[in-house]
Amino acid sequence: MAAITGARRRREPLPVWRWVVLILAAVFFLLPLIVALRFAGLKAFGSVVSQSGFTSSLGLSVRLAVITTVITIALMLPTTVYVHLRLPGLRRLLEGITILPIVIPPVVLIVGVLQIAPGSLKSTSYLLALEYVVLAMPFAYRAIDAGLRALDLKTIVEASSSLGASWSSTLLRVLLPNLTTALLSAVVLTVALVLGEYTMASLALYQTFPVWIYVNSQTSGQVSVAASLLSLFVTWLFLMAITMAGTRRSRKTGGGSVTLFTVARQETRGN
Amino acid sequence: MTTNTTSNVAADGTRQTAGIRGTSVVLQNLNRTFGSTRALDGLSIEIAPGELVALLGPSGCGKTTALRILAGFETADTGSVLVDGKDISSVPAAKRDMGMVFQGYSLFPNMSALDNVAFGLRMRKVAAGGRRKRASDLLDMVGLAAQARQYAHQLSGGQQQRVALARALAIEPRVLLLDEPLSALDAKVRLQLREQIRTLQQRLGTTTLFVTHDQEEALSMADRVGVMQQGKLEQIAAPDELYTDPATAFVAEFVGVMNRIPGELQAGGRVSALGSTVPVRGQSPEETPVDVLVRPEGLTMQVVENGNGIVTTRTFLGSVTRVGVQLSGDVAVQVDKPSSEAAALAPGASVSVSLPAQPVLVAPRQTP
């Protein structure tokens, strides 16, 4: 360890300011977690699970994450592929449209929707899922767009059809396997978004996991802090799993690693 | 490639050809407009069974459009495409049975070389064992048996194009379409692959349309070369005929090196230049300011005192040496001489350049 550090120091000395930034960032991000952990105490974690509403709210959040992800991918993948192939001129417009949900505050979105949504939809979890689809759109679009840009889409699609593949075969056997990295990025972002969203859920009166944590904090501070930490940890584990799975798979085929907005293609070895 | 591979090709090739030999292709009066650009302007080409025809021309001449219409990726505004006498205009690309090799690397990144080659067979519902066998045979044929398990990113550009060629041939295509498959490769690999494609194509007897902007590639590989300009076919002929007997000034200058020497039209279909008068070959133009077109090996040159030109450059090309000569009237020409006779032609030497006695091609004078 010491030898490695020594070698690195000789090669490229770390400037002081880099350490300052690192330490400041670490304090900024880790201190609240440590304080929260000390406040909650280890015992609180055990009682989180037995609290009323824990299972149902976590279940609702996971269900929302799944529904949102499925709808988002089903909607955005064909759209983005189609735009890339047939309407490349519309790419800028689509980029502009997909940025809108970030620009418009969630409060505005949900209040407007609640005014006009039919009652039958309001009573199901699908209303919130549909709202989340809108929120996830910018992230999903950018992830898929980056993945498609890394492919020579037109050539690959034409090669596939000249070999006798139908449209569905091309999509399933050629495009989808080459977009796994991009799709995983889209899934990671969508899931993270849904598991952490509070404003819309609380305004639409759903008790999702973040809402439950807040409500719970009114009665038992320690348990609610433990629940937040748990949710943070579970989300983090989930995202790590997706990212690692994606990276291992794409390394085999030269697809680069899963990063949120860039799916870099590996260079070909010369001629 | 090794001799070993070539002999494999021979053995394999003859076995596989029986069913595929004999597809004819006719492009009939194809027209295609993109916006205000006429990509194809009444293009007609007939390709005989087993023939390799190259379409040659500057970028934007319509050659790629012609190939893509044959492949089914574009549609012609008017005109028809006949394969074995049947109009296939309404047949989608996936059902045309045409193997295509693209300019860009087109291997599917998620599949190994072997799976890439087997893909077309898989789409044709060939059983797993059969397609693996055939794919291995084809990889062997292009000399890449050892790379079967590798992915596109692990292969060099030349290897990728060879896998793409094997993949296109695996489906026993009725027609093989090559869309500038070598232009992304470096010179040495290009030369090797050129020979390999030609050898394979001849062994398999697959009717092939090859699009390129590289005249050397077209002349060295094709049975016949079609030279295109602005959506029109200027001339289609065997490579040697194209070189020695170009139909138009465009072909003459696009293929090989051509000198332009100002001349004057005379009565009786003759033209005078460099102090001699010779017959005009073909139709002589109406306009009077004309240039005589002569290849470097067509001009004769002697070292003389006070000749009509001064040697400016001398380039050794092996058996011949190309000599640059500045003629009076600010005309520069190139003349080929056997290298054994070029010793006296040092820059600065005074020479006399004259026309051959044969009929020459003339073209309206180009104003620089």
Your description of this structure?
With about 270 residues, chain A is mainly alpha-helical. Chain A has one domain: MetI-like (MetI-like fold, Orthogonal Bundle). Chain A is built from 13 helices and no strands. In chain A, helix 3 (about 55-85) packs antiparallel against helix 10 (about 180-195) and helix 3 (about 55-85) packs antiparallel against helix 12. The longest helix of chain A has about 35 residues, at about 15-50. Chain A starts with a helix and ends in an 18-residue tail after the last helix. Residues about 1-10 and about 260-270 of chain A have low confidence and may be disordered. Chain B is an alpha+beta fold. Chain B contains nine helices and 20 strands. Chain B has helices spanning about 5-15, 65-70, 115-125, 130-140, 155-170, 185-205, 215-220, 240-245, 250-255; strands spanning about 25-35, 35-45, 50-55, 80-85, 85, 100, 175-180, 205-210, 225-230, 230-235, 260-265, 270-275, 275-280, 290-295, 300-305, 310-315, 320-325, 330-340, 350-355, 360-365. Chain B has a six-stranded mixed β-sheet, with helices on both faces. In chain B, helix 3 packs parallel to helix 5 and helix 4 (about 130-140) packs across helix 5 (about 155-170). The chains are: A mainly alpha (about 270), B alpha+beta (about 375). The interface of A and B includes residues 159, 169, 253 and 270 of A.
